[in-house]
Amino acid sequence: MNISVKDKTRALLDQQTSSGKHKRRKFNDLLARYGIAMGGMSVIVAVVLICFYLFWVVLPIFKPAHIELNKEYSWQQPEIQHIGVEEYGEIAFSIDNDGQMLFVDTETGSEISSYDLSSSAQLTDIAQVDLKGLMVAGFDDGSFQLMGQKYAISYPNDTRKITASVEYPFGEEAFELADSAIKVINAKRWEDGAIIAAVTDSGEIVAKVYSLEESFLDDGLSLEEVSSQTIQLDFSAKYLLVTEGPDWLYAIGEQGQTAVYRYRDGSWQLHEKLQLTDQGVLVSQAVFLLGQSSLLIGDNQGNIHQWFQVRTDNVFGLKHIRQFNLSEQPITQIIPEARRKGFIAADVQGEIGIFYATSERLLETASFGQSVQGLAINSRSNKLMIVGQDAATNLFVVENEHPEISWSSLWNKVWYESYEEPTFTWQSSASTNDFESKFSLVPLSFGTLKAAFYAMLFAVPLAIFGAIFTAYFMAPKMRGMVKPTVEIMEALPTVILGFLAGLWLAPMVEENLMGILLILILLPMLTVLFGIAWANAPDAIKHRVPDGWQAALLFPIIIFGTLFAFWLGEPLEAVMFDGNMPAWLNDHGINYDQRNSLVVGIAMGFAVIPTIFSITEDAIFSVPKHLTNGSLALGASQWQTLTRVVLPTASPGIFSALMIGLGRAVGETMIVLMATGNTPIMDMNIFEGMR
Predict the structure, then answer these.
(1) N or C: more exposed end of the chain, with fewer CB within 10 A?
(2) 365 backbone dihedrals φ, ψ, rounded to 5°
């Protein structure tokens, strides 16, 4: 009995169903479907969580400043000359007009201890000398005294206790400065010297420079006078500021008249005179910002102006940089922060503002409700104390973690201290607190894109054309050797590539720059010429090389071309560039750095080539054979099939390869860091580095 094919097929399917194979296959299909779906969803969730985490980490940087009233009480001294808060904000001190120094618990407002200054003369002015708490007091007999605060921490009965006292590092005896009463005094101390300057009742400035001598018998210090000078002014100086070194001296009048002196060859020499305010605008406060480079000038219209020295044609001049506005009332108090370029200002009606100079921001404001006679913030910038005219005292807790960050400071040009003009600069830290943090993201972004551009310029032609030839023209056996070799290059650590680029490739490129440039020109030319010659070679010669192995013939061409380029580069460099091409480029206005974009392009190109090559080769090799066979059967040549069938079909994969390669180039760190010198240069010059 004949059984039809249909019946046989049905019987076979029934047999498989009864054996359970369909159920297992269905279960496997369901498992694969939902497993792949879960894997894809997990990747999406992971990426979203990573983005959320990054946002959560970065968001606090942009958190605005906030101040909150913590304590209220009455200060025990009705009139004060100076006020300060120790580092932790637990103890505050003040000095009144009678020279009494009072230490107070900031939490309760109760007195801890009090001391009278050792001088019997009447206190006329007091100023802070350094960030360690040293102060200078001027008296009506023309003398001055240096004193500071000492905080000793002890743990009686396992309880932390801070004991405050006054110390006189240079002795309790006052030093003679002037013959008449001191009106305004200012001083600065550095490692081995000090400068004391004062405006006297007669309107002249007396400035003395001292060297510091340390006693061999104890830890005491002594002042040895180095120079003394009296400066006559043609206006009445209300404010006096001096810098370490000594270097600069600024005398400022109420009308904005300013005389700038510089210490040269043992004497103060007039450097320039200028007007800090417009006509009719009065100077109501003048202090240094941290680092003594910038002057903060408060006026009677509620504005604070920042000035600092700018070099123009090798000559320094005081220049107005930026302006901050608090209110429309006169500024009465300005205090700089001790560890960054921020400051706090108060006007005559008790309006308080927290500012940051570099980011040009008014961070927070508060209203005290009355005129302020004392304003102080601790060195950690988290405790702010305000004392009013009626001795009412408020202690505020300040939250101001990242005042230096703003969209303006990140993406716009900023005029930093000691710079000749506004710039894009990234320099996040230095060895001292005086340093002005620079957080511009522009040079980082520019350097990233510049490195990626030159890396892709080097890698894309080699990777794409190599992948096309390997997938479409190369013999299967040769392809089996070439592709794994290129792919294994991706396993090379980028630290090793960066190390080799910085220590070997960069010096080699500098010594053979002409040869390297000739390689980029000669190798493509020799390759094309060899291809033309091979296409026109006799069939007897071409048939000796198996089909798909022609690429092996390029090895001697590449080796010969490279050696010929290096050989030819030396005489050409001698004739055209006086034997030193890098020096010739520098002499003609084209800066050449040893670690430059050319080195980065080559080194990072080798890191990117395997990624682009592998994905592109897979995309081309995966084009269905029936498409290429159909094209060839219809009479199209191999090149026509490649350009009109294969490449359009594989274009999504090629585009993916380029995007992944670009992502690898943009995200690369170590090669760029080690091979470029990490220089913040914003120039597309291939011979310069980047950051």
Answers:
(1) N
(2) -130, 155
Which tokens sit at 164? 């405050």
The residues, any chain, with a CB within 8 Å of residue 594's CB and separated by 6 or more, are 506, 507, 510, 582, 677
Q: How far apart are CA 79 and CA 97, in angstroms?
A: 7
The pTM (predicted TM-score) of the whole model is 0.81
In the chain, CATH 2.130.10.10 covers 66-411
- The whole-angstrom separation of Cα 73 and Cα 395 is 9
Residue whose pair of structure tokens reads 């990490």 in the numeric block: 678
User: What strands lie across the sheet with 392-399, from one edge to the other?
Assistant: 66-74, 392-399, 383-388, 372-377
CATH number belonging to domain 66-411 = 2.130.10.10
The residue ranges of DSSP E strands in 12-117, in sequence order, are: 66-74, 80-85, 91-96, 100-105, 111-116
267-275, strands of its sheet edge to edge: 237-242, 248-253, 257-264, 267-275
DSSP 108: T
Report the alpha-carbon distance of residue 213 to residue 220 in Å, rounded. Answer: 9
Tokens 């097929």 appear where?
9
Using CA atoms, how far apart are residues 255 and 273, in angstroms rounded to an integer?
13
Phi/psi of residue 674, each to 5°?
A: -90, -25
No. of H helices and E strands in the chain? Answer: 16, 31
List average pLDDT for each run of 10 residues in the chain, which is 691 residues long.
70 66 76 89 93 90 88 90 90 90 91 85 91 90 91 84 87 89 93 92 92 73 89 92 93 94 92 92 93 93 94 90 93 92 93 92 90 92 92 92 87 89 83 76 88 91 92 87 88 86 87 88 88 85 81 86 88 86 85 84 90 93 88 87 90 92 88 77 79 65
* Token output for 184: 């305004």
Per DSSP, the three-state class of 293 is: coil
CATH C-level class of 442-675 = mainly alpha
CATH 1.10.3720 residue spans of the chain: 442-675
